[in-house]
Amino acid sequence: MSIDKNMNTPGSGDVYSLAEAEDAALLAKDTQSLSQGQLVRRRFVAHKGAMISLGVLVFITLFAYTSVGFAGVPGWWGKSYLDAATTVDGGRPTLSLIPQWLGGSGIAWGDHPFGQENTGKDYFALVMRGTQKSIIIGVVVGIVATAIGAIIGAVAGYFRGWVDSILMRLTDLFIVIPLLVLAAVLGQMAGNLGGSIITLAVVLGLVTWTGLARLVRGEVLSLREREFVSAAQAMGAGSGRIIFKHLLPNTIGVIVVNATFAIASAILLESSLSFLGFGVQPPESSLGLLISQYQNAFTNRPWLFWWPGMIILAIALSVNFIGDGLRDAFDPRQSRKHKRGLFGLTKAKG
Amino acid sequence: MLKFIIRRVGAAIGILFGASLLLYVLVINSGDPLEDLRESNAENREYLIQQRIEFMNLDVPWYQRYWDWLAGVGKCFALQCDLGTNRSGVSVDSLLALAASSTLRLVLLATVLALIIGIAIGILTAIRQYSGLDYGVTFATFLFFSLPVFWAAVLLKEYMAIGYNDWLRDPDFTLGQILVIAAIAGFLMQVFLAGSLRRRILTFAVTAVFIGAALPTLLALGYFREPRLGYVGVALLTFAVALSATAMSVGLKTRKVLYPALITAALVSVLQIVLVNVFVYYMNWWIMAAGLALAFVIPWFIGHSMGGRYKGTAAGVSMTTGVVGAGLTVLDHFFRSWPGFLDLKPRPISTIGSQTPNFAGGFWETALDYGTQLILPTILLTVISLASYSRYTRASMLEVSRQDYIRTARSKGLPERTVIFRHAFRNALIPIATIAAFDFAALIGGAVITETVFGWKGMGELFITGLDQVDPAPVMAFFLVTGTAAILFNLLADIFYAILDPRIRV
Amino acid sequence: MNSKSSPDTGHERRGEPALGFTDLDVRFATEFGGVHAVKGLSLEVARGEVVALVGESGSGKSVTSTAAMGLLPENATVAGEARVGGIDVVGLDPEKVRRMRATKIAMIFQEPMTALNPVLSIERQMTEALELHDLAYGQDATARAVELLRLVGIPDPERRIKQYPHQFSGGQRQRIVIAMAISCEPEVIIADEPTTALDVTVQADILDLLRRLKDDLDVGILLITHNMGVVADLADRVAVMFRGRLVETGTVDDVLNRPEHPYTRKLLESVPKLSHVDLHEAYSDAPEDPFRDLVLEANNLVLEYEMRGKRFRAVEDVSFSVGRQEILGVVGESGSGKSTIAKAVLGLLPIASGTLAVRGRDLAKLRPREAKEVRRKIGVVFQDPAASLNPRFPIGDCIIEPMVIHKEGDRKSRMERAQELLDAVRLPRDVVNRYPHELSGGQRQRVSIARALTLQPELLIADEPTSALDVSVQAAVLEMIKELQAQYEFACLFVSHDLAVVDMLADHVVVMKDGHAVERGSTNYVLHHPQNDYTRRLLAAAPVPEPGEQRERREARRELLGQP
Q1: Which of A25, A227, B57, B446 lies in disulfide reach of C388, CB 3.0 to 4.6 Å?
Q2: ipTM of the complex in this document
Q3: Nearest to C195 by CA among C216, C226, C166
């Protein structure tokens, strides 16, 4: 049997108990220390899909806001989504991306890159305006739904008892009514009240918080049994401090990941509502509305159908991928670097 | 257990009541029901307004109207539902009866398909975590998550319906198309079956050559307009199923499993010839259901009585053989009816409506008509909800695989298949049951859009028109059906949960 | 090779050992670089022999056993040999290794509560291995499983085999896991911390069971443990591991009584010992001084839990008192209500009846504002070092949290206090900016102690503060509590299941069983001259790290329990 009597432990030669070895390691460690937030950031940046998606999303957002301008600020694209004009070449798009040396007509932007619709309005301007609306909706709904869901979930999970019962029955209520139905009714209401896009977004936020509330509640129920919460209670910390300082920051992973998925689904929900006629109303533009208006133009003028759909898809897809990247970053158990398959996992201790 | 369910039902009814009140108040306040008449220039405008006020009881306070509606619903317990009238005075009951059946058929079929396929994909991707297949499926699920339903519906209509119908008029493939299809099939097959590089190349080659040879053959035989299996085809395929199921479970050497499977296959082969007249002339849905039941029971009996110590496996293998064999027989008869069906309906896949109006055909033709009308909306809804089920299953399987009892199972020397299906899967299903129940309500939302795009006169139509006209009765009728369905589904999930988890049961 | 193993271990060698490692080497690739877990380990286990593999966290002892089972995760690289019944399993076809599991080599795990599949019946889980390895089928397999359950001491096995894991207690579940492990008659069983999660009396029973089975079935056991008492009780030979290397091997007598390697010596020194226990003689205790400066006082205390609308009485009619600079040890097994008392003092649980007074103020009658004032005087250290610090707070913020809550001082004075406290618990001052996950368990526990002392409390509640720590780390933490008590003069309520730890630290002891205080008095009285039967059983069951003494104690326990 092999016995190693002259082994060296890290640190110094005469360190022999585990307790001493650990302290030596702490002292020897370089001063660079990473907070959880930094670790998360590092893992997120390493997630290729999420980083590409982030790029795509930033590009689309900048493009949409700078091109046609917003809040009275004019953009670099001269045409407005409201002005009708004469239709040129059947409203065919002038955008060309195939270079001449490949047999195409060269890379060109043209007068109407996305073509023109029936009355000759510039489709690029319409689509960009719609994209702006989708992004506003996504962000506002994300904020409203996340704030409501996180707080209701944390309160229900922390206090338990009758507070929990009432709040959870309330969320059940929202789950029994199909989301689209509730959103449609509220959307119609907001529309008739002459509300702006922000009103619609807030209204949608008011009905989409339930999923997050359930998740946060579940997390909080298990977190509140952790000893640091008991310790804070024993020190005399109030409920507010415990919820906002101890519980919610520790559910940040769930919250952030869910917020991104909420943004993606809000964008899809708005487009569905506008498609059904309960969301954004003409002459205002929205991607869902554009698809609804031109779905029958598919055979003759397919670009009227493709552009808004592709942009919704691109936004939703990249937001979802960012969410996936965040989930991986917050939950290192599923980190890709480990390369652990389902069935090669054994807990190695000791 | 019973107490648990009764308590859940009680809570559910309370929630349904609360939700109905909320929705009612929201709907009647969502706009002005008289808007179109106020702006109209009709001569009898005043009369029309008066008439509508009467139909909709606009002159009574809202709580009175809600109470009247609730009282009408209450009569359902005496089987005399009165769900009120819409603004033109038509009884909502009659509208609902037509709408509900087609919508629920669509939603239920899509849910069941999505659950089965989604869970299967979830398990597969969990087992092959971080493989090419996993990344591919992950990307596809995210794509489906992010797809606007209505947009995808229009694409499906364009390519799967119109495109297929055009193609079917004169089925043909160019050489290039055949090569591309063969290459794609081969690629997918090697991703699916995985293995070493050598095995992957072999899989690719075999699949590609097979598809490359099969497509021209099928074209030459006119298979796409006149498909057939024939008695011999059904018999051969059934025996192949019997052999491969035995080989995959315990190996062909185990006679106690092989023999019952072969006997079942022989039985299927004989019965499909003996019963051919029943199939052609006397078929209806009841016979179909009874036949399916027998296809389970008889093989189970054969396997169980002959299997000896392998009786469980033998019964399983025989049942698989029996059910697949019966399915092949039914498929064969659908194939036989296809040319006749094409004569009746030259463009089979349609894009509008839940059934072809004035369609006259036998059992098989009518069934094909239902099928071809249902296929596109079902594909759409299935694909959309499949994405989330496969993700949940994958995550749940990965979570369970970290548990100590999986390690215990493995330390007993169990093969991976047993570890996955007996130990991991049953535990992983527990959270999925709850999630599936919650998703059901979301799927109904998806169904509303799908129906709109495909022009079904279903529940979605009822809801959209009702809401557009600020007319509460149709909207509430829609909610009553979907809300009840959602709650029933939740209840089913609870029961399923209790069956799966002995900690709740005992 | 200067192995001290000698032929007098009582078991003749029959050719190939049941389990053998030669130069086993295991590395893991992880997110933060490679980890060299096992560095060239050689060891043999013969049939009918128990070899204990001893070491602290991270020593690689569990990795070694997992390698023998062929169950290492995919990111592991293994070199060397691991022979099971003469066949090297390193690099062997996984299918062949799988068939050897259960039939040649079986395993018993640490956590009986999670080692069994919750949704399958015991019958299903026991028979599947028998059917899989072609040993018995159907009725025969069930009959065999019933026999095995009877063998491991499950009462009424015919009925109970139909039940599910949650219907069994922790000790019974471990018996079931053992029954599974022996079901296919393996040559060697790896027992990975088989009694760590169990109460001390249950532990003694399980150790008896393992001893009996090894003789009856002539099976070799590789016992992985950190508990020297368990080693002394069961092992024939001992191998000590430190950081992936074997530092010493030999007979149990040699290694435990005459350790050679400095690490082994240090390890044995760290183990708290409970000696000179007199289980028979009558003895009377000196009365407590009633005029002490009392900090905590409980009279006829009753505590209740509410579980799904049902009230469940956790503590019934318990009285005790703790004076200034005193440590009161509360001992008992799981479910005895000992931690419940700590919770009540901390205000985490309402008082059902009786009084619980801190400095004479009854906690049950305080208004919220007054309660907060009282809590200033109480510090707390919990059991789980992984959970007791908020993972999102830097260490500095963790320590000063009591000052923030009680609005004391400004940022600067708070941080100064944090650094003083870090000095007191001998951690470098610059850890204030580190996060809890960067510290080891023992270091985190020291941060918890620092936090508890921030407001200079008069009372420290320590709820199993060292039970999750390794022996040498535990020794350091206990030493620290003692020192700090001398310095800060607080009273302490010390809750623990470990009698030896309490013996080392406490002045007075309360023994809890099923919510009742069965015995109470000075440490010398309760732990060295117990009068109550339950206390005696508890003390008899606690193993000591000396094989000779442990043998005597085992006999004494048998006598006490009335077994032959």
Answers
A1: A227
A2: 0.85
A3: C226
